[in-house]
Amino acid sequence: MPMRVRTIRSALRLAVCALVWVAAARAEVVNKILATVDGEPVTAYQLKRFTQDSIRGRQLGASLDSKSLLDTYITDRLIQKEVSDKGIVVREEDVDRYIGTVMERNKIDEEKLTAALEAQGMTLQAYRAQIREEIERDQLINREIRGKVNVTPEEVQRYYQEHLSEYSTPEKFELAHIFFRLEENAPSDKVAAVTAKADDVYRRIKKGADFAAMAKEYSEDSSGQSGGELGWFKTGEMLESIEKAAARLKVGEVSEPVRTKVGLHIVKVEAREGAAHQKLDELNDQIKQQLYNAALEDRFEKWLTEDLRKRHHVEMVQ
């Protein structure tokens, strides 16, 4: 065989070997084993598909680093194993019902849902598969966690006592007033005239005139039509000068005219309730739910990070 031909063939063999080596190297990168779960490989390709084929995967892929993303994907694999091992089966009508709820809540029909999914690069079929997995997870969590979480009356009582300051209610006043309009920068002669009018009404009330009747006759705001009634105010909700005046009054008493930025007010305290604490009976359900949610979250985290991993063999590949 001529030397030139042998040289060309050798070169071709080397080129083919090089191409095979490059292809193998690329396949190794794409299919690189990142971990094993009960002896089954978790590859880079599977992780990539997870971040591309599901809405949840894309969201996680955008917010987690590679290590956290791999850990989340492994946890998903473990949950699916648990679902399978425990024989949890989700029926088609369960998926239909769930999707129906989603469409009703968002006020869309199936056509619009399909269009919205396609805009995110997902088919309705893939979405149904994802919903099925979510329902399976919920059923597994209900079985494994919720039934094992309980909040006792003693825990509710203890939490209430430890957080009593959070359930305090400030002092409240039921007020009425007679209002005389007076601008903050009014000239002195007008200030004197309005003040004299307010003082005269105040003296007449102190001598026995009916407050509500005087309010209807003299008050210069809409409350006058209802006898000056303003309703209930908590400490901190009133203008400072009015609050100070109300704090000095007993129920049924009226104040001397009080100046504010908008005018003069003769204030009457119709009723008052001292500072107190909400009763445990009123808060029991709220506190119990709060403690239950916290306990559920703690138990779920422990189940994910400890219990689930103990029941399976997970090995990370360096």
Question: Unreliable runs, pLDDT <50, ≥5 residues?
Answer: 1-28
Helical run tally: 12
The level of helicity is 55-70%
What is the straight-line distance between the termini? 50 Å
Shape: elongated
| CATH architecture descriptor name of the largest domain | Roll
Question: What is the H/E order?
Answer: HEEHHHHHHHEEHHEHEEEHE
What's the CATH C level of the largest domain? Alpha Beta
**Widest sheet: strand order?**
5-4-7-6
Explain what the structure shows:
With 318 residues, the chain is of the alpha+beta class. The protein has four domains: 13-73; 86-144, no CATH class; 149-168 and 282-318; 171-274, Chitinase A, domain 3 (Roll). Helices cover 60% and strands 14% of the residues. The protein has helices at residues 3-30, 44-53, 55-63, 66-85, 92-106, 110-119, 124-144, 153-162, 188-206, 211-218, 240-248, 280-310, and strands at 33-37, 40-43, 168-169, 172-181, 229-234, 258-259, 263-273, 276-277, 314-316. The protein is elongated and about 95 Å long. Residues 1-28 have low confidence and may be disordered.
